[in-house]
Amino acid sequence: MAKYRAWLGVILALTIAAVVVITQIPTRLGLDLRGGSQLTIQVQPTKAIPTISERDMEVVQSVVEGRVNGLGVSEAVVQQLGNNQLLVQLPGVSDPEQAERVLGGTAQLEFRAQRAGTDQQLAIENQVLQGHLGELAALQASLPEGAAPIEAETQARIEKLQADIQASEAAIAKLFEPSTLGGDQLTDAIAGTDSAGRWVVSIRFSNEGGNRFAELTKAIAGTGRAIGIFLDNRLLSAPQVNVQYAETGITGGGAEISGSFTAESANELAIQLRGGALPLPVEVVENRTVGPTLGRDSIQRSLYAGLAGLALVLVFMAVYYRLPGILADVALIIYALLTWAAFNLLGVTLTLPGIAGFILSIGMAVDANVLIFERTREELRSDKTLYRSVESGFFRAFSSILDGNVTTLISCLALFYFGAGLVKGFALTLGIGVLISMFTALTCTRTLMFLAISLPQFRRPSLFCPGLSTARPNPVRP
What we know:
Distance between the termini: 14 Å
Helix content: 55-70%
Radius of gyration: 33 Å
Strand content: 5-15%
CATH class of the largest domain: Mainly Alpha
Number of helices: 12
């Protein structure tokens, strides 16, 4: 019995560790439970690509997924809807406008040389643009909160300012030569601060891009002309290049994009640039926020259903299987703690289908114990000793337990590989639960059973199989 006492120590240690993990690492909840943003993105055809193919959709989906990963959203869902739409679910993202800017932005970065003799005109256009931007910001700040209607005069002025801003940006863009270096030559983009504490975006070019950047800066160094950094045809920054770079240009393949960045806007730009340019224009046709109220109701009902089902199973096992059923109940509680801790430790995000998979795996765990106990009863009825009956029960049930769990795992793998979104969450939670249920059924229950029959007060066969006579001796060892 020494090895079973050692296993008992391992089980206790794992249970304590599971409780620590559950209390220290919060459980991640999906969009349907936690709330967040959901966007529907429409991919638009162009003259060059009049028909959107499956391959085009895969490329767009890959770029959007890269930007979602940059947002740091856990268990985000990006899946195709029909032939030209993507559904993006972002759990925990409470600012749908920020998500729309990051995911739907084209992020076309260009470096352009300023045309000669345009210094004065550039300063005037910049001053006009800043005036429009300042007036628009003041108007938007004065708008009533909530769903209060906006006055028609104010709305008309806002629309006029937006049109003036676009006209000013287009006029500024004409003051720069066509681009010879674009974002397609970028290899990395990182948001950070410079020596003065201002937010900038540091970028790295490929070898070809680095050479083009050196040529571009060499051409304008010391001339007083600026190098315009444009994002989606909007001027971000227009730094000048010192005369010291007139011979070689800025070499090394790197640069910094400066401007009126905040930490959030610098990070958004870095995400867009790292994600790459979208091969086709996209439009966010639906952007809605899922509130957490529905999530709270769903969580409560799911917990009530799970707890009620678990309680009924515990009562049934204790009443029908007597002592083995009580020991199986203990193992089942340990299983629930270990599975919950595994979800938190592995970063699994629980959705309603995921909770369903978890509850279903509880049934799988009980099923293994039922097989073991029925085999044990058969051995007891054939007049074998208690120890031999318990040992044979585990041995005879093992193949059935293994077959059942392996087939379930194969189904989980198929659902995870071919499914998407919530289906994957269901498959993942069910698969993890099945693996842990095998451990608890074949290790926890086995350890508790053999430790129990080592105690004289628990050696009565009637505790394992009601109706058996206890008159004949039934030693622990065969």
